[in-house]
Amino acid sequence: MCNISTVGTRPAPPILKERVNIMLKFIIHGKAQPQERPGVNARGKIVKFFDRPNTAEYKHRIQAAAFEALHGRWPRWSGPINLAVVEYREIPISWSFKKRNAALTGTLRPISRPDIKNIIWLCEDSLNKLVFIDDSQIVSYDGTAKYYGELPRLEITVTRL
Asked: Which of 60, 77, 117, 120 lies 20 to 30 Å (CA to CA) from residue 36?
């Protein structure tokens, strides 16, 4: 009888060339930050684009959460990918009990800014070259939505199809 100890060893990384649906889900707590227009720094003929500080900080939060969900490995998935981004916004304190209840059940949905497409854009840029090779691999956004919730958060689910 062989006694094999697995203490201190890491499991082998999954083989990602198989066509098995692999899902990665993680949550970023707090108010969602949409992608802002890039800043421009021009010196003579050299023009450089950069992310605004709020956008850069939120991108870093998304990347850190994704890296933690990946358990420290960068698989860079190949093939088609579905990106689902669900934003939960905080319910205003001034709302009545009836309106608050409607918001919590999903009957009342947020229609104000920021647009969901700007939040998706930020998530795509953050996960590019970390979870997938290129954001052109994203073929669908099934499950993307905006809701009201008790706590503001952003739930991101990446599925390899």
From this structure: 77
Q: What predicted TM-score, i.e. pTM, was given to this entire model? A: 0.78
For 22-34+56-160, CATH number out of 2.40.70.10, 1.10.132.60, 3.40.50.1000, 3.30.1330.70 equals 3.30.1330.70
Backbone angles phi, psi at 10, to 5 degrees: -95, 145
Q: Domain coordinates of the chain in residue numbers?
A: 22-34+56-160
Q: What is the mean pLDDT of the chain?
A: 84
Tens digits of residue pLDDT in 136-157: 999 999 999 999 999 999 999 9
Q: How far apart are CA 81 and CA 136, in angstroms?
A: 9
**Beta-carbon count within 10 A of 72 CB:** 8
Residue with the two structure tokens 């070259």: 129
